[in-house]
Amino acid sequence: MKTKGAYLLLVLLIELGLLAFALAAAPQTCPANLEGGCSAASDDDWTGEFFPGIPKIKYEGPNSKNPLSFKWYNAEEVILGKKMKDWMRFSVAFWHTFRGTGSDPFGAPTKMWPWEDGTNSLAMAKRRMRANFEFIKKLGLNRWCFHDRDIAPDGKTLAESNANLDEVVALAKELQQGTEIRPLWGTAQLFMHPRYMHGAATSSEVAVYAYAAAQVKKAMEVTQYLGGENFVFWGGREGYQSLLNTDMEKELDHLATFFQAAVDYKKKIGFNGTLLIEPKPQEPTKHQYDWDAATTMSFLLKYGLKDELKLNIECNHATLSGHSCHHELETARINGLLGNIDANTGDPQTGWDTDQFMTDISEATLVMLSVVRNGGLAPGGFNFDAKLRRESTDVEDLFLAHISGMDTMARGLRNVAKLVEDGSLAELVRNRYKSFDSELGALIEAGKADFETLEKKAMEMGEPTIASGKQELAEMIFQSAL
Predict the structure, then answer these.
(1) What is the pTM of this model?
(2) Which top CATH class is 55-422?
(3) How far apart are CA 110 and CA 315, in angstroms?
(4) For the packed helices 293-302 and 325-334, what is the interaxial angle rounded to 10 degrees?
């Protein structure tokens, strides 16, 4: 008992220390050129830089030793008929970049950025928004993504929450003026608040269903107001922990009705953005209804929604579902459902959603192979749904992580250009299926070969001769492009 008491006292002291650190951090780390001090109330007077030691990031080429420069991403360079910036359409994830604290299920926050004051006030929300725009500009990008409750604090009532959101969005609109910066997509956070403990659109409580609809309605409106190009649904709690207390059919029917209402409202207000569903198999629920691309497509087909929504594929979610990111992208692409990509990855030794920046050149090349085959992603793009490691605590690390991720995807695109220009891989695939270039193959692919015809041909041709799949050669060709 004494040991337990000492432990609890130690925990209390640590928490008090963290609180004191949070309250003291902003004034101690305030940028030197900030006018008016660092208090949250002075937000409207903020005129200094949030990243005073960071220059605008420029392309310096692969031989550059400057970590704050692009080695492979050259926005204006034309690759395969498009500028790199048009293939990529990169965006910054507001929640990980400006709300990430380094906390995890086993540890307290490790980061307190210079612009933070330890609160989630409206003034603090505005300060984060100003930091967001400076960050985007210094990276040379013009897109960002957001959850409603990450950019503005939750209020005591829905009306208060809406008012908070309106105030922050008004500032974002003001900051957009004179720039090309717009949201790639917006979304409603329907998973963190206790009201969503049983889900949102699949909640067993009708009042929660109605609240979620109202929240999506507002989030879609502000996304449209800011010129957003897409709107995303991530059903983090749209699933179950146990089927023993779950009516799965009812919940799926309710989810489909919710999506149909979103489609109807999108059309009513004239929002031209694409509605996107982001598949994920589990975490936080045991089983989520949008398990992977194929499961989500089946859901859309059953409920007549396939022409109304597309998919936002996250690479880390793909691996959690037992697939490669390339598999999920190809599944979405060949079914006309590829809308956007969350460019992140996981750690093969960690069985959870670690949201790391993608740095694997091979994986990036496979991702870009699907994007090129798709003709691009517009009006979608790449969202860096990735966060710094818990141990990375310097403001500079935010830039280094994005530069590394952007360069990795750019190298992937350059590698795909090599594969396309060489043509060997495409030729290998064509040759593997060349038997279908025959008269019989044409009949089969046209759906005109019945079983009687196929039996007759099988009798005539005798035992088939099977050609090699040449997997090793395909892998050799692919690796040569890296």
Answers:
(1) 0.88
(2) alpha beta
(3) 26
(4) 30
| d(C-alpha 478, C-alpha 415), whole Å | 9
How far is C-alpha 32 from the chain's CA centre? 34
Q: What is the pLDDT of residues 58-85, one digit of tens each?
A: 999 999 999 999 999 999 999 999 999 9
The string of pLDDT tens digits covering residues 358-409 is 999 999 999 999 999 999 999 999 999 999 999 999 999 999 999 999 999 9
| Distance, CA of 284 to CA of 272 (rounded, Å) | 31
Distance of CA 106 to the CA centre of its chain: 24
**What are the catalytic residues?**
147
Residue 52: per-residue pLDDT: 92
pLDDT in tens, 308-324: 999 999 999 999 999 99
Q: Is the pLDDT score of 3 beyond 60?
A: no
Specify the residue for token string 């089946």. 298
User: What are the backbone dihedrals phi and psi of residue 367, each rounded to the nearest 5 degrees, phi first?
Assistant: -60, -50
Report how far Cα 222 is from the mean position of its chain's Cα atoms.
19
Q: Which 8-state DSSP code applies to residue 201?
A: T
Helix, strand, coil share of the chain (percent; to 5)? 50, 10, 40
CA dist 436 and 443 (Å) reads 9
The burial of 472, by beta-carbon neighbours within 10 Å (0-12 exposed, 13-18 middle, 19 or more buried), is given as exposed
Q: Which amino acid is at 273?
A: G
The Cα 32–Cα 271 span in angstroms is: 43
The domain locations on the chain are 55-422, 435-480
What residues does 277 pair with on adjacent strands?
233, 311
Which residues sit opposite 145 in a β-bridge?
93, 185
Longest dimension (CA), the chain: 89
